[in-house]
Amino acid sequence: MGRKEFHRTLTTSAEKLKTQICSRKDISITARNNSDGVASAGILTHAIFNSGGRCSVRFVQDLTREKIMKTKSEDHDFHVFVDLGVGLSKELRNSFGGNWLALNHDKISKEEITTDDENSILNPWKFGIDGDTEISSGGISYLIAKAIDKKYQMLSPLSIVSALGENQDDGEKRSFVGLNSELCDESVGLGTLNIEIDILFTWRDSKPIHLSLSNTLFPYIHGLTWNDKNCLELIRNTGIPLKVNGRWRTSSETSQEEKFVLIEALTKYINEHSTTGSQNLENLLAGFSYTLVHEEEGTPLRDAREFSFLLECCCVQSRPSIGLAVCAGNRNKDLLEANHCLADLELEIKNSVKTIMSERWRISDDGTNIWVIGDNVARDYNFHVISSLLSSYSEFYGKILIVRAETINDSYKYSVRKSRGCQFKQDLGLMLNQLSAELGCSTSGNDSCAECIVPFSKIDDFTTIFRRFTKFDEREET
Predict the structure, then answer these.
(1) What is the pLDDT of residue 475?
(2) What's the average model confidence in pLDDT over 37-49?
(3) Phi, psi (5° rounding) for residue 248?
């Protein structure tokens, strides 16, 4: 098994879908409610509709047996599950026979691989390809679309947006590796994407430098993030001109020397205000930027990272269909609605993080893990974004971050994530699966981040077992 077999199976899957399209069959797409799922659905719906087919799309947080049965009752001709379905292939096979495809980059069991006689599962792990780093579900969806018709190469930037949504830019200088790197090169060759080394600030080509810095959420820099005044003072102290001919300069207009001076100033600031130091901050703030050439300047769609975060905001605000419309090329009203989702979520996150950081009782450090109590602050629908932001905070460097939020069903939802620089060897998704076997919890996730839902009555047991698992990993290292 390897890349040749992956592409061979991908071609077979594309032909299978193309047959459904050409026969005008009723195709159902069920995608995960996240940026990867929305971008993937955008790619597939564009290819299906523009090839003369018809389909419907729904977004779900997770796929369950109950949701599979509900989909079955709707009597569609063919089913595509995007970024979903791992661990449920038996149920999918029993419900839909051979009339389904599952496009997913999450780890899959050997049992699911060996029992997939119909090749209904297109998953990189089946072929020895690392789905955590080398390709997203959006990348798989794009390759399917391109195999249906090469004219859909125009959709290649969405595969990059999708990969960024899965934080797969973990190569040198925030580059891509594996199949993602090839997709990136393809987009550049097609003239749809521009890549350059830059400071990775939000609004880097549309807002004044200090506003760009203060609104950059990743990494979170306590005292600078959301603090326009402090950011303005820091940049003024560097001597970098903030204006030219009376007009505010943007970070993309700064010279390489000025970028170096700016990163040096940020590093110094963090070293002075943090107990752990900056910890190679330049690796987060300086790296490859990915610009969608055909998108309008000054919009969040121009920068692939901002595009990805915009889609995530739509999902968190329970409006993935708006994100889907934007991926399909709709602008004006839909883009305006998406921007409202972005602004609303950013305000929620800002208020939540400020409360968490000011009420220090919410944060505890046991030496290996950082525990964050998000009760009455974080919501179960937005806390994974808060968790992602806090995982980039220098004070949490090298630790496992556990953020909890209350749900409406007498339980807590936990987001577990490896913070920047964490050397924990175990796969968090697999570890929580083991934990759930002891507690009967619902879990999902991958190597670097996972979630689980724990009843109130089992909170102490969860904490005890989790600490035992992470301490065991420490003993393994020694």
Answers:
(1) 42
(2) 97
(3) -65, 135
Other beta carbons less than 10 A from residue 105's beta carbon? 31
- Partners of 247 in the beta sheet? 244
In the chain, the amino acid numbered 415 is S
Cα 341 to chain centroid distance, Å, stands at 17
Give the containing element (helix H, strand E) for 30: strand 26-32
Residues 200, 213: Cα–Cα separation, whole Å: 9
Residue 344, pLDDT score: 93
Query: Shortest CA distance to 290 belongs to which of 155, 380, 196?
Result: 196
Domain coordinates in residue numbering, the chain: 3-164+175-184, 198-352, 359-477
According to CATH, the topology of domain 3-164+175-184 is inorganic pyrophosphatase (n-terminal core) (3.90.1640)
In contact, 450 and 403? CB cutoff 8 Å: no
* Architecture, CATH, for domain 359-477: Roll (3.10)
Using CA atoms, how far residue 141 sits from 10, 52, 123, 148, 155, in Å, is: 10, 18, 11, 11, 10
Q: Distance (Å, rounded) from C-alpha 175 to C-alpha 28?
A: 34
Helix H or strand E segment including 449 = strand 449-455
Q: Is 16 helix (H, G, I), strand (E, B) or coil?
A: helix
Q: How confident is the model at residue 227 (pLDDT cuts 50, 70, 90)?
A: very high
Q: Are 223 and 232 in contact (CB under 8 A)?
A: no
CA dist., res. 90 & res. 224, Å (int): 50
Nearest to 471 by CA among 431, 441, 419: 431
Over 60: is that where the pLDDT of 169 sits?
A: yes
Q: Give the three-state DSSP class for 372.
A: strand
Q: How far apart are CA 31 and CA 198, in angstroms?
A: 33
How far apart CA 105 and CA 86 sit, in angstroms, is 9
